[in-house]
Amino acid sequence: MGDPSGQVTLRPATPADAELYYATQYEALGGYFKGVWDEAVHRARTKQELADNPVQIVEQGGVPIGYVVVSQHDDHWYLDEISLIASARNRGIGSQLVRDVMAAARAAAAPLRLSVLDTNPAQHLYARLGFRVTRIEPPRIKMEWP
User: Fold this and answer.
1) What is the pLDDT of residue 29?
2) Cα separations (Å) of 130 from 18, 26, 124?
3) Cis bond leading into 15, ω under 30°?
4) Sheet holding 8-12, edge to edge
5) CA-based end-to-end distance of the chain
6) Given this model, what pLDDT does residue 54 score?
7) Closest to 81 (Cα-Cα) out of 104, 97, 93, 92
8) For residue 140, how many C-alpha atoms fall within 13 Å in the half-sphere facing its CB?
9) Which of 6, 98, 122, 140 counts the highest number of beta carbons within 10 A?
10) Phi, then psi, of 99 in degrees rounded to 5
11) d(C-alpha 96, C-alpha 22), whole Å
């Protein structure tokens, strides 16, 4: 069935990925929105986001483990979201995915931008990878590389 090498690959999301997308997003972000996360609203939004955004499903060994959303604009690229299931975190996969996006943006001669919640520990990963803070708009931190 899956890739026996365990290699991490990306593929375009399809409507069949809606549950994975929702569950991964909720698992990663739901804790930041305790008391205000509306499951019905977010589930409805999931289908629209999959249709409207360049969502790539992250697979390891052919098994879906998360997603990445990168938008390419004329003057920059935007790392909108990167999210992995809990069992895939803290294994270097997210860092490698971000480095891969950075390399592609560099090849396109485009700065890479993102926005992260000020309570999200991922901001430290982005800083280690060379992103710099360009603006703070609580509760978000805007960052750019290079």
Assistant:
1) 67
2) 32, 28, 10
3) no
4) 8-12, 55-60, 63-72, 77-84, 112-117, 140-145, 132-137
5) 39
6) 96
7) 97
8) 10
9) 98
10) -60, -35
11) 23
- Record the tokens describing residue 66, joined without a space: 């998360």
CA 125 – CA 136 distance, rounded (Å): 17
Kindly state which CATH superfamily the domain 8-145 is placed in: Gcn5-related N-acetyltransferase (GNAT) (3.40.630.30)
What stretches in the chain show pLDDT beneath 70? 1-5, 29-37
Tokens 């569950």 identify what position?
A: 23
- Say which residues have a Cβ less than 8 Å from residue 7's Cβ, sequence separation at least 6: 60, 61
Domain boundaries, the chain: 8-145
HEC string for the chain: CCCCCCCEEEEECCHHHHHHHHHHHHHHHHHHHCCCCCHHHHHHHHHHHHHHCCEEEEEECCEEEEEEEEEECCCCEEEEEEEECHHHCCCCHHHHHHHHHHHHHHHCCCCEEEEEECCCCHHHHHHHCCCEEEEEECCEEEEEEC
User: b/e string for 3-19 if b means 16 or more Cβ within 10 A?
Assistant: eeeeebeeeebeeebbe
Instruction: Kindly state the tokens that stand for 1.
Output: 């069935």
